[in-house]
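Incident review: delayed structure delivery

Summary: a single-chain prediction request sat in the queue longer than the usual turnaround. Root cause was a stuck worker, restarted by the on-call engineer. No data loss occurred. The affected request and its eventual output are reproduced below so the record is complete for anyone auditing the incident later.

Affected input:
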Amino acid sequence: MQKTWFITGASRGLGHAFVEAALDRGDRVVAAARTVSRDSFDARHGDRLLTLTLDVTDRAAVVAAVDTAVAHFGRLDIVVNNAGTLSMGMIEEFTEAQARAQFEVNVFGALWVSQAVLPHLRAQRSGHIVQVSSIAALGGFPSTGLYSASKFALEGMSEALAAEAAAFDVRLSIVQPGGYWTDLYTDVSATTPMDAYAPLRAELERQWAEGSVDSEPRLAAEALLRLVDSDDPPLRLLLGSMVYDLAFDLSRRRMDTWAGWERVSRAAERPVPAPGTAG
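Output delivered after worker restart:
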């Protein structure tokens, strides 16, 4: 059955790969991005592709784009919130404007798209929202703390949304990719470095040089197709061996810490009558 996709951040990287994968199997796609052109996609897809210029931080523009997409194709089946930005720097170095900008795209952009599509998905009582998160949502790491914070926020919001949307037979999945050869790291914004963090930066650069291995976006697109075709899609899907192993490692460490402090945790709770009531 032919499906209709709405994909943000569609002009490059993972978003571009998602668009091509959906079109290649015969689906219809609305490809939305700040700068997007039909010329960047295979012309043979013809009228199954609609490109829309869209800044996801503009809520009114998002609503208008979704309405245009539904008017053009009649419905939406799969919505992929892929648009995202990466700001690198130590927490102390971020200006207020830089910190807010990181959240505007990664959190509020996904929020506006989700809000805009939900009336349509609720009305048809079907659909699948896919939130593209990151390995950074598994934990906070030096120099990507604000990026991690935005992805943590995205996932917290999405967990609640998944439960809310399920009442209308609308599904939601959070995809957590590892490293892929995209423009995310080449189009990164950065803080003004503080001298105090120079040694830590040097150590991080050494670690990245030794252990950074990225994959083709096509592999992520293939996994996405399997996800949306599933009769029972998961709330979360890890993409890549590195992120898979890291997720289990971090989870075990957290469980070990919780277990080690169990006595303190349990002692901090003791039910008592509400203040002002007779005991």
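Verification: The chain has one domain: 4-241.
Action items: add queue-age alerting; document worker restart procedure.
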